[in-house]
């Protein structure tokens, strides 16, 4: 029987201490590893963590993908699936079990597919198929949209729902194809080329959507094939690519005229927002009505002001003023004449009395001559006053004639009125088809605005 070493408290380890030292040893040596194998015993509890076993023909390894890392992985793990896992080896101390704490999961063979993806991307980029100046503008108001996608997937339902909600007047022509698996890439390319040829069985296509829902790199690989990229690049119709989810990128995305992260987003971009446009039009209508109402009020005030000014300058008003002035002058003349005659009568009476007092015939003859002279002057005063008044009246009548519209018309001008009889001062006041009346110096005629 072998002799046992004497034990002390210093060299005895607890289970926890041993497990912790093993953990520290493993974590220090086995970190940042890629492990591949087959998935089994997959469990997904409510916590969001994923527990599974990775195995091959000779061994198995417990793995855990915590919720924080799982939300960044696009691969849907399933039992029997061949995958590659990147992570660190650790020890689950409560069970004394070593395990792989996964950080990233990808299908087996992902590296080869990624290499192929990058090679084709570089090739097409060198050919200039990704250049911005090749991108065709997407029509803002399409009449008909063609959709190349699976007839049974969620993508086609999402696209049709978006079109019905935003722009129900847009026609959607669905061209059903396989979107994954053997032969899918050829079907997709043939559908794109058939639509590009403009067959008689289709209406004029304004926009082409190439779409499918999300999935793994293998699921989306049909949209990374060169045959699909060439068909999209040669398509004369603007192409929108809506393949996968936000984090998925395909060769089809780079070649298309527009890339959207999801099928629904592609449909959103392809058709206008009908309800939003209607709201904008209603707002514009209200603004336009307010502006027109304001302009009409302003024009009405301007027209009333012009009408009052026209009345103030009308010949009838001037004639009436002149006649009133003439009546006033006549009254003044009559009053002046009466006063003058009264004065002369008084003077003659005084003179007669003086003659009667003096009585010499010579004085009588002299006074008679003076009297005749005064009587002549007296007779000329009313004539001079009437002549002056006539000259003033004639001047006023000439001024009235100058303001008379008929005098203006006689010089080659004309006046045009709308159907309500209002004078037109601007060509903006009439529209095509309005009837107008034109007045000339010797008549008038009606016409229709062309």
In short:
By secondary structure, the protein is α/β, with parallel strands linked by helices. It contains twelve helices and 13 strands.
What this model shows, in words?
The chain is an alpha/beta fold. The protein has 4 domains: 97 residues, OB fold (Dihydrolipoamide Acetyltransferase, E2P), CATH 2.40.50; 160 residues, Succinyl-CoA synthetase domains (Rossmann fold, 3-Layer(aba) Sandwich); 89 residues; 34 residues, no CATH class. The chain has 12 helices and 13 strands. A 5-stranded mixed beta barrel has the order 1-2-3-5-4. It has a 5-stranded parallel sheet with strand order 7-6-8-9-10, with helices on both faces. The protein is rod-shaped.
Summary tags:
450 residues, alpha/beta, OB fold (Dihydrolipoamide Acetyltransferase, E2P), Rossmann fold, five-stranded mixed beta barrel, five-stranded parallel β-sheet, rod-shaped
């Amino acid at each position: 029987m072998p002799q046992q070493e004497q034990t002390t408290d210093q060299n005895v380890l607890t289970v926890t201490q041993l497990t912790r030292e093993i953990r520290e040893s493993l974590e220090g040596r086995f970190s940042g590893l890629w492990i591949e194998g087959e998935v089994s015993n997959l469990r997904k509890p409510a916590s969001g963590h994923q527990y599974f076993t990775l195995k091959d023909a000779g061994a198995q390894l417990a793995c855990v993908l915590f919720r924080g890392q799982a939300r960044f992985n696009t691969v849907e793990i399933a039992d029997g699936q061949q995958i590659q896992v990147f992570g660190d080896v650790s020890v689950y101390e409560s069970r004394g079990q070593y395990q792989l704490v996964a950080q990233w999961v990808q299908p087996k063979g992902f590296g080869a597919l990624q290499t192929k993806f990058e090679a084709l991307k570089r090739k097409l980029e060198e050919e200039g198929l990704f250049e911005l100046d090749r991108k065709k503008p997407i029509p803002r108001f399409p009449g008909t949209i063609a959709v190349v996608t699976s007839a049974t997937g969620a993508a086609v339902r999402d696209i049709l729902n978006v079109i019905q909600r935003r722009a129900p007047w847009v026609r959607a022509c669905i061209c059903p194809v396989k979107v994954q698996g053997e032969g899918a890439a050829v079907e997709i390319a043939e559908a794109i080329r058939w639509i590009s040829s403009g067959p008689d069985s289709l209406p004029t296509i304004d926009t082409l959507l190439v779409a499918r829902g999300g999935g793994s790199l293998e699921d989306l690989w049909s949209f990374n094939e060169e045959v699909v990229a060439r068909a999209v690049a040669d398509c004369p119709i603007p192409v929108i690519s809506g393949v996968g989810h936000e984090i998925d990128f395909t060769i089809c995305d780079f070649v298309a005229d527009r890339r959207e992260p999801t099928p629904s987003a592609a449909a959103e971009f392809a058709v206008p927002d009908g309800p939003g446009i209607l709201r904008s039009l209603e707002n514009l209508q209200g603004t336009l009505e307010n502006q027109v109402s304001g302009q009409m009020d302003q024009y009405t005030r301007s027209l009333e002001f012009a009408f009052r000014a026209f009345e103030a300058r009308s010949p009838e008003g001037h004639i009436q003023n002149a006649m009133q002035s003439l009546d006033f002058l006549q009254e003044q003349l009559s009053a002046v004449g009466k006063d003058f005659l009264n004065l002369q009568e008084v003077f003659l009476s005084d003179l007669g009395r003086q003659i009667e007092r003096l009585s010499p015939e010579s004085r009588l003859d002299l006074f008679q001559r003076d009297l005749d002279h005064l009587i002549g002057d007296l007779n000329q005063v009313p004539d001079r006053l009437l002549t002056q008044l006539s000259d003033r009246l004639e001047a006023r009548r000439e001024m009235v004639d100058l303001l008379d519209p008929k005098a203006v018309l006689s010089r080659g001008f004309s006046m045009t009125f709308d159907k309500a009889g209002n004078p037109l001062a601007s060509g903006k006041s009439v529209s095509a088809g309005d009837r107008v009346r034109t007045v000339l110096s010797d008549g008038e005629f009606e016409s229709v605005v062309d």
